[in-house]
Every structure is written in C-alpha cells, then in structure tokens.
Specification:
The complex is a heterodimer of chains A (107) and B (379). Chain A has 107 residues and is mainly alpha-helical. In chain A, 68% of the residues lie in helices and 0% in strands. Chain B is of the alpha+beta class. In chain B, 18% of the residues lie in helices and 41% in strands. In chain B, strand 7 and strand 8 (102-107) form a beta hairpin. Classes of the chains: A mainly alpha (107), B alpha+beta (379). The A-B interface holds A 76, 82-85, 91, 94-98, 100-101, 104-105 and B 155, 157-158, 178, 180-183, 249, 253-254, 353, 355-357, 372, 374-377. Chain B: Residues 253-376 form the DNA polymerase III beta sliding clamp C-terminal domain.
Chain lengths: 107, 379
C-alpha cells in the first residue's frame, strides 16, 4: 500500500464514520420522538378509559383520589413522594413507609 | 508521672476505653490513649471524635493495687500500649514517664520504652451541664437499644435515619428508629421522671458500643443530655457521644391504628419458618416471600420462589387468625430482624392491606413495643 492509498483510505474511513454518526443522531432523535409520542398516547389512553368508565358509571371500589393516584404513579416509577425525600430516587426500588403513608393515609 | 497498678484491673478498663479509639482517624493524637495520674486515681481516656470514653481507677480502692508515686499526664499509642500491657509477665506493672514524653513500662524483668505524646494537645472532652440526670435500669436500657437499633439505616445518604430518636417527657421514654422500610419503637416508663422535655437523635453506632459496655455489670445507667452531646455514666465510666443534628421525621403517623387481618404466632416458630423460606428468596433478585392468610380456614401459608433454584411452600401454625383474607409479600430479612427482637414471646401481626405496612407486637404487652414492616409490591 503506498502513501497515497493510505491517505485515501483514511479520508474514506473518516467520511464513512461521519455518515454513521449522522445516521445514529437521526435515529436517536427519531426514537425520542417515538417515546414522547408513546407517553402522550398512554396518557391520552388513560384519560379516555377514565371517561369510558365514568360514562358506563361502573361501580368500582372506592379508589384513591386523582392527586393520590398521581403520587402513587410517581412512587411506582421509583421516586419518593414523602415530605422527607420528595423527588429523590428510591434506591433499588425499596419500599418507603413515609411515602406509603402519604399515598394511602386516611382523610 | 509514675504509678504501679494491678494488671488485670488496668486491662479491664483499658478494654472499655479502647472501644472509642480507632486507628483510622484524621486527628493523629486520637490514635492514642490518654492517661492522667492524680492523687485520687488514674483516668483513662479514649476518643474518636464521635464517641469518647473516660474511666477512673480509684487509688483508694485496695483491690486496684494502684499506687501513684507522682502525678502527671501522657498520651500513649493505644494499639502498641495495650498489646504490651496484655503480654507483660507479672501481675502488676509500673509506668514511669522519664525525660520528655519517653515512657518506661516495667513488669518483672521486662522493660519497654515507648514514645508518648504531650497530653496538653489531646482534645478536651465535651462539657455537659449535669443538672438533669435521668436514671435508667441497665438491663432495660440494653434491651431498648437492641430492639430499636436493628431498624437504624446504614445509608449515609440520609444521616438522620442512622440514629435512634429518643423522646423524653416526664416519666415517658420513647425510642424510635426507622430506615423507611421498617420501624421499631419502644416505650419505657421511667421510675423517676425528667424535669425537662428532651428530643435527641443518638447515632446507632454509638448505642451499639454503649450497649456492649453495659454488659451484665451495671444495673444503673445515668443519662445526661445537652444540645449536641449525650453522656452516659456507668459506675466510674463516662461515655460521651455526639448527637445527630436535624429534625427526625414524624413517625407516629406511620403506625396504622386499625387492622383488617390479624394473626397470632409463637415468635420462635414463625422465625424458623421465615428462615427456611428465605433460603431460596436470597437467591432471587428481589428477595421476597409471600404470606397467604385465610381466616375462614384458619390457615396461613408461606411461599418463597426463586426461578433459578426452586420454590418452597409451608403451612404455618398460627395461634389465631381473624379478619379478611389477604395475600402479602415482604422482605424476609426485615421480618427475621423483627422476630429476633421478640425472643420467646407470642406475637400479634396486624395487617391493613397488601399495600400498607403491617405491625408486630408482643401479645402480652401491645402498647410498649412495636415493629413495623413495609410490604413489597409484586405486580
């Protein structure tokens, strides 16, 4: 392999890498869009189901209030919702008695 | 400074003081043991900045064989010094500080020369004003420590939970510890009340050291509290510990007041079953065991499942089962720790729901001791 070939192949490689990078970035933005859309649809779906249940007038057991449900969801996603550590990540998804008290307390 | 003393007496006190001395400390002089000889006796001091222990060997007590020839003070490297003392040949030894901080230790025909440090550079012990002394029964206090300290958190990320919360109001003494996964609370009625209210958080590690010292030897412990230090007096020994700063979270609301399902067990039998079931759960990633309670059939069944290894199922022998049917999962290690603290007694477990924490109390005395465990969601 002479020197010119060596340089040429470097240039070719650089170009190929750049193209790969561009493609990777494109895919990344695509996937984050899809994830975002998925989250939106999930929320939408939930709302619709709530509406559906309401219109059916389904006799479900007494459930947590809307705000408590939100807290419960946050808790299940792995965050503290208690006064002491609100918003901090629950280590290894360990249960927290303070959070449970906040979510399920009576009255 | 020069004295001679019976070796066995000295070693006993040295062992106590050494609990506070750590070889890993940022302040070099704290790796040493401080010795002060006065006309009244010999004072030994050890400290690691968190805990300080000071003890006095009286010169007037003949059994100590303490003879002080001249008074003074010295700091000696604790690790070498204690090894030397323990290996000396005779029943007594003599210690003599010669020039500078050179210290000569002789016993029989053995003679050591150790380099000491200036005792004036040793940090002062915290000062605690001593008006309000709370008298505690040694055995009860030791039990209280062992029952609560199990629930203390070992995560430094939440420093406040690494301590036990002590609340004193008149003759009511309340100790609580929680790592937010489980909680342990013990109440004691004091024979003599305290004139002021106290609310302090004592590091769990300090309490463990303290309870080791209480042993069977001291039937009375005196507690004195200040803003940032606590002092415990056991006979001639003073144990100082730093307090944790901050406000302890309100734990009273964590304990459920009502129960949907209750079960009664002999604590040792249940412990044995839980230990069996946890053999497999330890292998699985989430370390969980499940209880299925059926009051109509008066049965309680325990399940452990670890997909890689296998599963276990055991029908327990409850003394009583009441309330509604329940299926609940929890970490068996918390249950084990809790059950250990009940010893031989009969216990009552009260559940509210599969999502809410449940409590364990001795059936004999349901007011003064309670353990709480949070369940694990398994769906």
């Amino acid at each position: 392999m002479n020197k010119k070939e060596l340089y040429d192949s470097f240039i070719a490689l650089t170009k190929a890498t750049q193209a790969n990078l561009e493609q990777l970035q494109l895919l990344q933005s695509e996937i984050s869009q899809v994830i975002e859309q998925n989250a939106e649809l999930e929320i939408e779906n939930e709302h619709l189901r709530d509406l559906l249940n309401q219109s059916k007038g389904s006799a479900k057991e007494p459930q947590l209030s809307k705000s408590r449900q939100n807290l419960e969801k946050l808790y299940e996603e792995g965050f503290h919702v208690c006064k002491e550590w609100y918003g901090k990540r629950r280590e290894d998804d360990e249960a927290c008695a303070f959070c449970m008290e906040v979510i399920y307390r009576e009255g | 400074m020069k004295f001679s003393i019976r070796r066995s007496v000295f070693i006993k006190e040295l062992n106590n003081v050494q609990r506070a001395i750590s070889s890993k400390t940022t302040i070099p002089i704290l790796t040493g043991l401080k010795l002060v000889a006065s006309d009244e006796g010999l004072t030994l001091t050890g400290s690691n900045a968190d805990i300080s222990i000071e003890t006095v060997i009286s010169a007037s007590d003949e059994d100590n064989g303490l003879a002080i020839a001249s008074t003074g003070a010295i700091v000696l490297p604790a690790r070498f010094f204690s090894e030397i003392i323990k290996r000396l040949p005779e029943d007594t030894f003599e210690l003599n500080v010669t020039e500078g901080f050179q210290t000569e230790i002789t016993s029989g025909s053995a003679a050591f020369n150790v380099n000491g440090l200036d005792a004036n550079n040793y940090p002062h012990l915290p000062e605690i004003d001593t008006t309000d002394a709370i008298k505690l029964d040694g055995a009860v206090f030791k039990e209280l420590i062992s029952q609560t300290v199990i629930a203390v958190s070992n995560q430094e990320s939440r420093p406040i939970l690494t301590g036990v919360h002590f609340e004193l109001d008149a003759d009511q003494f309340l100790a609580v510890a929680t790592d937010s996964h489980r909680l342990s609370q013990r109440k004691v009625n004091l024979p003599t009340g305290s004139s002021t209210k106290h609310n302090v958080i004592i590091p769990g590690k300090s309490l463990i050291e303290l309870s080791r010292m209480i042993g069977d030897e001291y039937d009375q412990v005196e507690m004195r509290l200040s803003e940032n230090q606590a002092l415990f007096i056991l006979g001639e020994t003073s144990f100082y510990t730093r307090l944790l700063e901050g406000t302890y979270p309100d734990t009273s609301r964590l304990i459920p007041s009502e129960a949907e399902t209750t079960v009664e067990f002999e604590a040792p039998a249940l412990l044995a079953s839980i230990e069996r079931a946890s053999l497999l759960s330890h292998e699985s990633r989430n370390n969980v065991i499940k209880l299925i309670i059926k009051p109509t059939e008066q049965t309680v069944t325990i399940f452990g499942n670890s997909p890689d290894v296998g599963k276990v199922e055991e029908d327990l022998k409850p003394n009583a089962v009441t309330g509604s049917e329940l299926e609940i999962s929890f970490n068996p290690d918390y249950m084990k720790d809790a059950l250990h603290s009940f010893g031989q007694s009969t216990i009552k477990i009260s559940f509210t729901s599969a999502l809410r924490p449940f409590t364990l109390v001795p059936t004999e005395d349901q007011e003064n001791f309670i353990q709480l465990i949070t369940p694990v969601r398994t769906f």
